[in-house]
Amino acid sequence: xTWLLLSFAVVMLxxxxxxxxxxxxxxxxxxxxxxxxxxxxxxxxxxxxVARALDRPELVDVALVFGLLAAVTAxxxxxxxxxxxxxxxxxx
Length: 92
Fold this sequence. Notes:
The protein is mainly alpha-helical. The chain has helices at about 1-25, 30-55, 60-90.
């Protein structure tokens, strides 16, 4: 069972690398934000898999913090994007 969880963790790690590439070369700011959301939830999932595979319950707390930070970042981005769009509209 441990090898199965760790192999899923490797797949999640590859997904994290793909998200990092999208953050670096994303054509729009929305693409970059979605990739950041992907990285937040994937890192939380990765930590949960590793916590279960290695029997390290303290990693569950870290995964919960990552999930919370991903949600807060989405709210901050949404607020920032709305204000930015309104500011750009006022300049016309």
